[in-house]
TrEMBL record:
Keyword Heme in annotation: no
Compartment(s) of residence: Nucleus
Short name of any one Pfam family annotated for the protein: Plus-3
Upper lineage: Eukaryota, Viridiplantae, Chlorophyta, core chlorophytes, Chlorodendrophyceae
Protein name per its UniProtKB record: RNA polymerase-associated protein RTF1
Residue ranges, compositional bias (Basic and acidic residues): 338-361
Cross-referenced SMART domains: Plus3
Residue ranges constituting the Plus3 domain according to the UniProt record: 56-195
UniProt GO cellular component terms: Cdc73/Paf1 complex
Coiled coil segments of this chain: 236-270
GO MF annotation list: DNA binding; RNA polymerase II C-terminal domain phosphoserine binding
PROSITE patterns found in the cross-reference section: PLUS3
Record InterPro entries: Plus-3_dom (IPR004343), Plus3-like_sf (IPR036128)
């Protein structure tokens, strides 16, 4: 039968009001310890041995054998842990209903140590105190048995209603409810744990358990020297069994030392990898910030996707005319700022038409210039001057050739260099 399926099996409790999840709540701890002491005093009063086995235990008597989580954490690694908590009561969390935590009362049947497939302990934390263990409690409620982690055990004392439901559930299952005799035996077990005295064998067992859990610190150099001394002693005594055992233990120790060294190297490599990854992420973030800054500057300068401008393209440096002066109007007229379409390059067809227009205007100007008559008196060039300085200054070094007459009109038209004489001959 499921523990959380029946209203008789579980009693809804407000966890926050009871403080069961507050690890450092000294008031709750003192209240629980005070209730347990009062329950022990009440259990010591008013009944004899002949009435213990058959009479049901009262609520105050049952509270004297209740184990809160803090007490389990204090004893969890002791050698007497499994013996002293057997048949004691615990308040177990079995889930939530309507947003409230549900608790039931159960009896501790035993302790189970969980291990992985490779044989190593499967550790977990029992609470906020940082206690780690691989032990779980095998809890019994009626005929149902289920393992629970110690982290699910409540720190608060169970209520009168929860205890009444627990006894009613046992009677409903045709089982004997909790009696005064059960309470007496559990109290004796708990007293044994409180006054336990350690022997050398117990200390050795504790050290071995810590070593198996990986909590004991081992000085590899000291342990290796100790095993070497034991090997030499076994060789001197011709104890082959002990010799093989010590050699095997030394080999395991060397293997453990090699694994630890490998773990340290792996940790160093992991640290370097994490540093490289952190630097790479920092560089990426810097590049992102620089990119955002460039986008902000480009947006401020008008380099947006709508303007078809690209910050990495060549800037346009072609001069733009904002106004021009007309002959009829001496006052300059300001032109509006050209739009993006005006600033864009013109089409090749428009450029070709403009070039042809300018060429036609130049041709007309040259034709008009050719029809203008020039009346130049060159007779003064024949007047005597010192070394022909005047003609040389006006017509250049080859001034005599410039004033020579040409009789052949075809020669005049075909020559590449025109003189005054040839020009007058052409227009006459």
């Amino acid at each position: 039968k499921k523990w959380d399926s029946d209203e008789d099996d579980a009693v809804l409790s407000d966890v926050g009001s009871e403080g069961t999840e507050e690890e450092g709540d000294l008031e709750a701890e003192a209240r629980s310890e005070g209730e347990r002491e009062e329950a022990e005093e009440a259990a010591d009063r008013g009944y004899g041995d002949e009435d213990e086995e058959g009479e049901e235990a009262a609520y105050e008597e049952a509270c004297s054998i209740a184990l809160p989580r803090r007490r389990l954490e204090r004893w969890i690694n002791e050698v007497f842990f499994a013996q002293v908590i057997e048949n004691c009561l615990v308040r177990v969390s079995v889930g939530e209903r309507n947003g409230e935590r549900m608790y039931v009362i159960a009896q501790v049947k035993g302790v189970i140590e969980r291990k992985r497939d490779d044989g190593t302990p499967r550790m977990y934390e029992t609470g906020a105190g940082g206690v780690r263990t691989n032990k779980v409690l095998e809890c019994k409620r009626g005929e149902s048995t289920k393992p629970f982690e110690i982290s699910l055990i409540s720190n608060s004392m169970f209520t009168q209603q929860e205890y009444d439901n627990f006894q009613r559930f046992l009677r409903k299952m045709d089982l004997r409810p909790l009696t005064r005799g059960d309470v007496t035996r559990c109290r004796e077990q708990l007293k044994t744990g409180e006054g336990f005295k350690y022997t050398a064998q117990d200390v050795k067992q504790l050290v071995e358990e810590k070593r198996q859990r990986g909590q004991a610190r081992i000085n590899l150099v000291f342990e290796r020297n100790r095993l070497k001394n034991l090997i030499e002693d076994a060789e001197m005594r011709d104890d082959h069994d002990a010799l093989e055992a010590y050699k095997k233990e030394l080999a395991e120790l060397n293997e453990k030392a090699a694994k630890r060294e490998q773990q340290l190297k792996s940790a160093n490599r992991s640290d370097l990898a994490s540093i490289n990854q952190r630097n790479s992420q920092a560089n990426f973030q810097e590049l992102q910030q620089a990119g955002r800054a460039e986008v902000h500057v480009a947006s401020a300068l008008g380099w947006t996707a709508e303007t078809n401008d690209d910050a990495f393209l060549r800037r346009r440096t072609r001069p733009m005319t904002y106004w021009k002066t007309k002959a009829s109007d001496p006052t300059p007229t300001a032109r509006p700022k050209p739009s993006l379409e005006d600033r864009s390059p013109q089409k090749p067809v428009d450029e070709e038409a403009e070039r042809r227009r300018k060429a036609a205007e130049l041709q007309r100007a040259m034709e008009e210039l050719a029809t203008v008559p020039l009346d130049v008196d060159i007779s003064r060039l024949q007047e005597p001057t010192p070394d022909g300085q005047l003609a040389k200054r006006l017509l250049g070094r080859n001034w005599e050739q410039s004033i020579a007459e040409y009789s052949d009109e075809s020669i005049v038209k075909s020559q590449s260099k025109w003189t005054l004489s040839s020009y007058k001959q052409l227009i006459s």
